[in-house]
Amino acid sequence: MASLGATALARMLEIATVTNYEARDILFREGENAEYFYCVLSGYVRLFRLNKDGREADIRICGPGDTFAECLLSVGDRYLYNSQAAETITVARFELQKVRALAEQESDVAKAIIQCLSDHLRNTMDCIANDRLQTAPQRVAHYLLNNCPVEEGTSASIRLPFQKSLLAGKLGLAPEALSRAFSSLRRAGVTVRGRIIQISDISALKQI
Amino acid sequence: MASLGATALARMLEIATVTNYEARDILFREGENAEYFYCVLSGYVRLFRLNKDGREADIRICGPGDTFAECLLSVGDRYLYNSQAAETITVARFELQKVRALAEQESDVAKAIIQCLSDHLRNTMDCIANDRLQTAPQRVAHYLLNNCPVEEGTSASIRLPFQKSLLAGKLGLAPEALSRAFSSLRRAGVTVRGRIIQISDISALKQI
DNA sequence: CGTGATTTTGAGCCCGATCAAGTTGAGTGG
DNA sequence: CCACTCAACTTGATCGGGCTCAAAATCACG
Fold this sequence. Notes:
4-stranded antiparallel sheet, DNA-binding, homodimer, 11 strands, 7 helices
């Protein structure tokens, strides 16, 4: 969005609809007719799939600034996963049809879509690699390091932007496994109190 | 590629370089300076990452028609993973710089990039969901069903296009786990002889 | 201070990784 | 055509990480 030129931006805003949802509201379900793609303005959205036993697995957690369902822009008329508000949220909604047309005319829009898809593809590939290579404590350490306000210094403090159960899903873990991972990181100088996480030795965390 | 107009196609072919590699050759490594993105013409390419112990995990297996490293088109000057020829292969190579310039001018090229990124993103998200929801036999069943020549009929036969160890990596399994998954599918009517796989009852496989 | 949701802790279990043989298979040279 | 060789695959045994279920503890909030 930020990269759009003035006219392109104006035309995108023209077709945007802002909507609010309450915690646990379903925005759309897998297989439903897809009309819109979304951009999160505030709060967090959970994208997940179900297996045939009804077990849920998170595919992605979207926060402010993130878009989702944009992979339907080129082809596809069905949503590929379920999406649910993790809390009270505000999202902007764009009709796929209109954005497709706009991308044809405004090369800025096409470029922004490419940027956005690339970023997601990167994150998603990282996610696969992490799932396949790292243990639970390593994933948590990795998450903490990626969300450290500063790269430098020995200690840091992070406030989780959402519930731990949501973080667990994001990392592909059961909530219990996340909890145990945190307690196993205590020996590496990680202290958890509610949503506040203290890291006493950043370089020690990198060794995990 | 197939969707490009005549002039766009010509300009892409103009900047393409065709190269061959032998089995196990490394095309590029994670962290190296990225100059090209690739399109597989024949054979299979393995994209993988290493953890700090040197264990490898496949992120994607690319076959004829697949492109890789295209997520570097918008930003990024380093490869994000290692790529290795799984056998004797032929690939086309495109300079990122030139394709970026071309995408600006030819909207067909931009559209093709969007298409291609969307497809990958979809596949990659599917991969995460499968990793998190399905057991080994379910993943194998899923793969077989997705690669059945026909949707209809009760029985089918598939010839794997690559080694089983490559399939194992693609599905996020150790080769031993793939082998055990196949043998556990025997009771569902799956017979394996070399690379040839016979499925006696497609609908039974869907139940797995 | 009470209530319900969230998180932590414990115990048991299962899936898949790993290591170590064995077996099959493909390609090579006699 | 057959033995040889090396790689690929299978099978067995063991191990460990993370899931599940259950219960206790903590937290958020009225």
